[in-house]
Design a protein that fits this description.
Elements (H helix, E strand, L loop, with lengths): L7 H9 L8 H9 L7 H8 L3 H11 L13 H8 L1 H17 L11 H21 L5 H9 L3 H9 L1 H14 L3 H8 L4 H11 L4 H8 L11 H16 L16 H6 L5 H15 L1 H8 L1
C-alpha cells in the first residue's frame, strides 16, 4: 500500500511514541512466506518452533472450543495440516498482538482495557460470521481483521495514556463518537495511528486497510469487502453490547457497504442468531488477553 502523507499532527504523536514493540521475527517470516507455493506444514512448524511461547498459545487456541476439533492436536504441523497455513499465520499474528498489548493501564473506568478486548473479540467474531455468509475466501483473516481493527486505540492508551483518557472523558461527557473526540483532543484518529503501526509492521494491505479505514469503508481500494465487513461487525458488536469501544453513541453505518457486501437476505438474521454462541466459543482469546 502506498504510504499516506503523514499529517503534522500525526507526526507529532508518532514522535512521542517510544519503545513501540516490533513484530517477532517468527510472525514476520510467516507473513513473508504466504506467497511461497513450496511452503509446507513442516516449514510452518519449523519457523514457529523458534518461539515456544507462541507454539503454546497457538495449540491452546487450536484445541479450544473456538475450533471444536474432534481430536486433540499436539503439534503445529498437525494444526497446519488440519486448519491450513493461512489460519495458523493469522492465529500467530492475533496471539502476538494480544501478548504485546494485553497489559494496559486499564484503571480508568472509561478506558478499561479488558472491555476494549471484549469489543475487539466481538468484532472479530462478527466479521468471521459475515465472511461465512458472503463466502469470503479467508474467514480466519476476517476474524483477525476484526480482532485488531482498533489497535490504534491500544497504542494511544499505552503510550499516550493521559491524552487517551482525555479522549475517553470528552466522548463520555459530550456524548459524541470516540473518533470525533479523538479529533477534538488530538486531531488524529486511532485509524491513522493503526495505519502507521500496520506499515511499520509491514502488515498485508488488507489488514492495513481494515485497521485504517474501518470508519470510512468507501475509501478502501485493496480490500473493500473486508473493510466493509469489519465496519459492519464493529456496529454489530456495539449493538450486542459486547465490551466497550469508547462511546455510547449508536453506530453509524456507511450505506455503501451494502452494495459492496451484497448480503443474502437472511444473512443478518443468521449472524445475530449465531453471534452469542460464537462469542462464547471465543473465550480462549479473553483468557489470553487476561494473562
Amino acid at each position: 500500500m502506498q504510504a499516506a502523507t503523514v499529517s503534522t499532527d500525526l507526526a507529532k504523536i508518532v514522535r512521542r511514541i517510544k519503545n513501540l514493540p516490533t513484530l517477532p521475527v517468527v510472525v514476520t517470516q510467516l507473513m513473508e512466506a504466504v506467497n511461497n507455493p513450496s511452503f509446507s506444514a513442516s516449514d510452518v512448524s519449523r519457523i514457529i518452533s523458534n518461539d515456544q511461547a507462541l507454539v503454546s498459545k497457538i495449540l491452546r487456541i487450536v484445541n479450544s472450543a473456538f475450533y471444536g476439533l474432534p481430536k486433540r492436536v499436539s503439534t503445529v504441523t498437525q494444526a497446519t495440516v488440519i486448519l491450513g497455513f493461512n489460519t495458523i499465520k493469522n492465529l500467530a499474528l492475533g496471539a502476538t498482538v494480544f501478548e504485546m498489548f494485553s497489559k494496559g493501564t486499564g484503571e480508568d473506568d472509561s478506558c478499561n482495557r479488558a472491555e476494549f478486548w471484549k469489543h475487539s473479540i466481538g468484532t472479530g467474531v462478527a466479521t468471521k460470521l459475515l465472511a461465512r455468509e458472503i463466502r469470503y475466501s479467508n474467514p480466519e483473516e476476517a476474524f483477525v481483521s476484526g480482532l485488531i481493527h482498533d489497535i490504534g486505540k491500544v497504542v494511544l492508551d499505552q503510550f499516550l495514556h493521559n491524552e487517551f483518557a482525555e479522549v475517553c472523558r470528552v466522548a463520555r461527557e459530550d456524548g459524541i463518537r470516540f473518533i470525533d473526540a479523538e479529533r477534538i483532543v488530538l486531531n488524529v484518529t486511532h485509524g491513522e495511528i493503526g495505519h502507521w503501526l500496520a506499515q511499520k509492521w509491514n502488515l498485508p494491505n488488507q489488514l492495513d486497510e481494515s485497521i485504517w479505514l474501518h470508519h470510512d469503508p468507501g475509501a478502501a481500494r485493496h480490500a473493500p469487502r473486508l473493510v466493509a465487513m469489519v465496519h459492519l461487525a464493529d456496529a454489530i458488536a456495539r449493538m450486542e453490547h459486547i465490551g466497550f469501544a469508547g462511546d455510547e453513541v449508536e453506530p453509524e453505518m456507511n450505506p455503501a457497504i451494502w452494495d459492496v457486501l451484497r448480503l443474502p437476505s437472511d444473512a443478518m438474521e443468521n449472524v445475530l442468531a449465531n453471534f452469542p454462541k460464537e462469542f462464547e466459543r471465543s473465550a480462549i482469546f479473553l483468557k489470553l488477553a487476561a494473562e
